[in-house]
Amino acid sequence: MKHVGKKSVSFAMEIILVLLMVVNAAVLIFLPKVITFYLEHDYNILDVFSTEKTILLAILYPCGLSALIVEFSLFKIFRTLVDGDPFVQSNVRYLNVMGTAMIVVTAFLIAKIFLLNSIMTMLGGLASGLLAVFCFVLADVFQQAVYYKQDNELTI
Amino acid sequence: MSIIVNLDVMMAKRKKRAGDLANEIGITGANLSILKNSKAKAIRFSTLEALCKALECQPGDILEYQEDEEDGK
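Predict the joint structure of the above. Result:
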């Protein structure tokens, strides 16, 4: 199974990420309706202007936007993998952007722990925090790789 | 940069064209251009050896150290 290049796992991931971005954007557009549906069916909260709905909207909008940024960054990184040249400066930038977006998600999920807690919120907060650290470390690793690659390319 | 590559001078002295020299020493024209324009970060001994052989010269004829103005103060 090919991991890098055309017709590889990276190419499949590119397509999956495009689909994810479309779904993410659709959910963001219809977020008030989705939350109303969720609250009505899972919690029997029928008040459209309930506090729960306001809190969920205030938390899920920035989280959704951050997720969209993460998906777009991943899409760009997988594009370089398909092209067969992943150690480029733009990937370092995208990894840092992803890390920052994950910090935003972590901050909002931590806020949700105090406002509207659930087990999934705590797990999500922990996972996004760890992913943020992972992204920043990976960005540093990529930066080193870019440096070595440039060094190698300019050694004649 | 402190190390000056005098490759173009030696090529002119030996009347060698860039394409011919690149073919002779087995590197691409683009890489020879990087070397000629002092854009290279390093040069392999094997490349230097091939250059010296092709241009019938010593490494010192191709590479020259010049003290930077800032370092000289």
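Chain B has a mean pLDDT of 88.
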